[in-house]
Amino acid sequence: MATLLRIDASARHTRSLTRMMSDHFLHTWHRTTSDLKVIERDVGLYPPTPISESWIDAAFTPIDRRTNEQRAQLETSDRLIDELDRSDVILMATPMYNYGLPASLKAWVDQIVRVGKTFTFDLSRGDRPLEPIFSGKTLAILTATGEFGFGAGGINADADHLVPHIRTISKYLGAESLHHIGIEYQEFADHRFEKSKADALTSVELLAQKLAELSMTHQTVS
Ligand SMILES: Cc1cc2nc3c(=O)[nH]c(=O)nc-3n(C[C@H](O)[C@H](O)[C@H](O)COP(=O)(O)O)c2cc1C
Q1: Is residue 26, in this structure, part of any structural domain at all?
Q2: Which of 105, 145, 155 to mutate to test the pocket of ligand 1 (most atoms within 8 A of CB)?
Q3: Which residues constitute the domain of residue 129?
Q4: pLDDT, average across residues 108-133
Q5: Is the beta carbon of 17 within 6 A of some atom in ligand 1?
Q6: How far apart are CA 72 and CA 12, in angstroms?
Q7: Residue 161 is part of a domain; what is its CATH number?
Q8: 147 lines ligand 1 (CB under 6 A)
Q9: Pocket flag, ligand 1, residue 105 (CB < 6 Å)
Q10: Residue in 191, 104, 188 with CA at minimum distance from that of residue 145
């Protein structure tokens, strides 16, 4: 049975486009097969704590030398990493806030990307000493933006610090297969927004169905 980690990052509980997309994704998956375990991690409503100096000290202290306080410092991180470790598919639904990640999602990333847990660090590898530990996962990124044209060649292409950031981080999540679907124009509330929303929901449905079918044959799709 496949395990899916659902991450919602919108600070809005109601009227959230990204939550609507992740609901739609799961609804479609369940219609295709009931064979799915879902782990829910709502960072929008329950943001992880930002990391601190003592967190960094604890993370860089060898495991056998950690004090009880240091172990306690890393409990949230351990739990979040365990959820990631157990997942085959990561469903990440996130708004664009100020052209980048919501702070709550960035806090989740900072809790997850940790030496010895999600990456190894070895200077003998030369100029690229970091290597991810997890592999073989599928990441589906669902976004919503008020403005538009964040894709290649669009009028705001150079202002997108959301999806490129997630793409960069994705290797430390173990994601080898990436998909992105976005709703644009939310702030314009016109026919372009309605079309973008309808197109995105269709794409979400097709993707969820495809991934659900592949999960039954234990394959990943790129
Ligand atoms: C605090 C805040 C910052 C935002 N910053 C941007 C932005 O930089 N660019 C943009 O296109 N939209 C921006 N928006 C619009 C949101 O991306 C848009 O409303 C989106 O639908 C929010 O996702 P949600 O519907 O799931 O809550 C911002 C909205 C909020 C509330």
Answers
A1: yes
A2: 145
A3: 2-216
A4: 98
A5: yes
A6: 30
A7: 3.40.50.360
A8: yes
A9: no
A10: 188
**Nearest CA owner, ligand 1 atom 27:** 16
Whether 108 is covered by a domain: the verdict is yes
Q: Is 118 in the pocket of ligand 1 (CB under 6 A)?
A: no
Evaluate whether residue 221 is within a structural domain.
no
Give tens-digit pLDDT for 41-86. 999 999 999 999 999 999 999 999 999 999 999 999 999 999 999 9
State the total domains in the chain: 1
Q: The whole model's pTM is what?
A: 0.97
Interval 26-46: pLDDT, tens: 999 999 999 999 999 999 999
Q: Which of 91, 98, 99, 161 to mutate to test the pocket of ligand 1 (most atoms within 8 A of CB)?
A: 98
Span 145-160, mean pLDDT? 97
Separation of CA 110 from chain center: 12
Q: Across residues 11-35, what is the average pLDDT?
A: 96
With a 6 Å cutoff on the Cβ, whether 186 touches ligand 1 is: yes
Q: Which of 138, 59, 125 is nearest to 91 (CA)?
A: 138
**Which pLDDT band, with edges at 50, 70 and 90, does 189 fall under?**
very high
- What is the Cα 121 distance to its own chain's centre? 23
Residue 39's φ and ψ, nearest 5 degrees, are: -105, 125
88 belongs to a structural domain: yes
Q: Which of 17, 96, 186 to mutate to test the pocket of ligand 1 (most atoms within 8 A of CB)?
A: 96
Give the up-direction half-sphere exposure of residue 195: CA atoms within 13 A in the CB hemisphere.
4
